[in-house]
Design goal:
Shape: globular
CATH architecture of the largest domain: 3-Layer(aba) Sandwich
Strand content: 15-25%
Largest sheet: 7 strands, mixed
Distance between the termini: 35 Å
Oligomer: single chain
Bound molecules: 5-S-methyl-1-O-phosphono-5-thio-D-ribulose
CATH class of the largest domain: Alpha Beta
Structural class: alpha/beta
Amino acid sequence: MKVDGVPCRTIWLAEDGWAVEIIDQTRLPHAFATVRLETPEDAARAIRDMLVRGAPLIGATAAYGLCLAARADPGDEALDRAAELLGATRPTAVNLRWAIEEMRSHLRNRPHAERVAAAYAKAAEICDDDVATNRAIGEHGRPLIEQAWTKAGRGRAVNVLTHCNAGWLATVDWGTALAPIYLAHDDGIPVHVWVDETRPRNQGAALTAWELGKHGVDHTVIVDNAGGHLMQHGKVDLCITGTDRTTASGDVCNKIGTYLKALAARDTGVPFYVALPHSTIDWTVRDGLAEIPIEERDAAEVTEIAGRAADGTTTTVSLTPESSMAANYAFDVTPARLVTGLITERGVCAASAEGLRALYPERG
Ligand code: MRU
């Protein structure tokens, strides 16, 4: 996608050809700043502290983290250590484990002298594959938006509700949930997006709103609790979210609050779609509620909030009584029965074992 007219991905190699550069997403929407990563520790910190976030981008960053590790020491022990460090940064998005395993199996039986070049080539391939995959998700999802627009009579914009940030900032480019929106918008379909602010880290208010605005897509930020009300009043034509891990039976784990939107969508008859690349499917898990580890983050993300003050400086303020406890569950699981369909790079399928198997027969 473009930032002020300049094509941009979320992760790329520095001019020296070995260091890795990322957008520091903790500074958006108020500042567009990039950060240079030189070691696997830098990459791990960027993932843990959420300078990069979003399931596919976490995976891509871990892949480049292993390149940086191989550059320092291409031996098995060093790579194992780096894989462990990177793999422990965030527990829920399965793309992290997927990307690390892709890298490890690509490097495993190679002579040490070849490993650095092979690692960089594989990380670049993972990134390019993510871009092509997300573009394909966009192409398969775009007709769903057009159908909703037609159903609404084509006399007004089609209203799509999304949660968290599953746009290009969450991937290498294009995004998952937002890819169909960008393509529909580019094709002249009038799209308006309801953007859930997505407390506590406000990925919707800060990131989704920023990237939609940069692309010229009409949008409105709402508090997380407003979606149900809007659906009851016919103001949402469809919901599209991303996911951090989808089970082999179609359960969807995504940012906390996704489940409540799916419940409201079911009650009001609003279609609820989830967009995902192949790398987000965990074929080893069938029961999302029982088997997916849910990340619990620092309570300070709930008790405090950061923003820009009137004088332009960034500041953090406290929200809760000092003595109050706070809990910060970062993800929840939406059971497959509440999901209208999964939008993948291979097409749209039912959120079920049969639906996924039909699209990915090799997983049989
Ligand atoms: O905690 P985050 O910001 O990494 O959570 C991101 C999400 O929940 C996204 O919806 C998900 O990763 C899909 S991104 C294409």
